[in-house]
Every structure is written in C-alpha cells, then in structure tokens.
Amino acid sequence: MTTAKEIMHPGAECVREHETLADAARIMKERDVGALPICGENDKLLGILTDRDIVLKCVAQGLDPSRLTAGEVAQGRPMVVEADEDVEQVLRIMEQHLVRRLPVINHPEHKLVGMISEADIARGMPQERVAEFVTAICAE
C-alpha cells in the first residue's frame, strides 16, 4: 500500500493569515510552488492560497495585494489527509472534491507535514491511474 507520505512533497511552508498576498506571491516564487497552506494561531490550517486566488480575488478585482491578507481570502475548511492514508483514498478525495492540491497532516498532532499536488501524483502513481485522476479533475 502506497501512502500519502510516500508521494507528498514534504516540508510545506505556511503563509500566515496576517501576511499579505504580495508576501505570499514572493514565497510562491522563491519556493517555485503555485499554492501555500494558510495557517493561523497554533499552526491551525485555515485554507489554501493559490496563485489563481491572488489573480482572481485580488488583482482582477482591482485590489492591492500589498494590503489584502491571506486570511481575508481563505474560504471554507480545507480538505486534508493524514500521512498514513492510502493513496487511493487520497485520489478519491481529490477527485470527489475536485481539488488539485491537498495538505497532509500527521497523526495525532495534526501538524502540517506536506502537500500533495498533481505533479506528486504524476511522479508517484502508474500512468493509467494518473490519466484517470486528470480526467476526473478536469471533467468539471
């Protein structure tokens, strides 16, 4: 059984809820990533911020990314998986909720330990399963 921990990108870094979108964009550029978990007090996961969020919820609205914070664009409760979760279950969750990135937490501390992205799935899964995943995610 392949687990989430085996395919995830370890060491995901949070953007803090009070950091600006401009700060988040700089972190994304430095880390060469398209999404960051948004963390609040005690590293509580508040959401996921994507480069697309910055463009659509800030720049395209004529808002100032140096004033708008990550916490202000966080919406809903993010889906997460535990590090020891079977990767097939991980894929089902991502397909069902049409998410392209998924935070991975450890148990029992529930601390963020990594992220799973489409690229991680492509590297860690057989081609035919990757094709099924991409078809499911892109169907909507």
Write up what this structure looks like:
This is CBS domain-containing protein. It comes from Kitasatospora atroaurantiaca. InterPro entries: CBS_dom, CBS_dom_sf, Diverse_CBS-Domain. It holds the Pfam family CBS. The structure is a single chain. With 140 residues, the protein is of the alpha/beta class. It has a single domain (4-138), classed as CBS-domain, CATH 3.10.580.10. Helices cover 40% and strands 20% of the residues. The protein is built from 7 helices and 7 strands, in the order H-E-E-H-E-E-H-H-E-H-E-E-H-H. The strands form 2 sheets. Strands 1-7-6-5 form a 4-stranded mixed β-sheet. A 3-stranded mixed β-sheet has the order 2-3-4. The two termini are 29 Å apart.
Separate helix tally: 7
Major sheet strand order: 1-7-6-5
Run of helices and strands: HEEHEEHHEHEEHH
Could you tell me the number of beta strands?
A: 7
The CATH superfamily title: CBS-domain
Overall mean pLDDT stands at 90
Keywords: CBS domain
Protein name: CBS domain-containing protein
InterPro entries: CBS_dom (IPR000644), CBS_dom_sf (IPR046342), Diverse_CBS-Domain (IPR051257)
Domain CBS: 8-66, 73-132
Question: Nutshell version of this structure?
Answer:
The chain has 7 helices and 7 strands, in the order H-E-E-H-E-E-H-H-E-H-E-E-H-H. With about 140 residues, the protein is of the alpha/beta class.
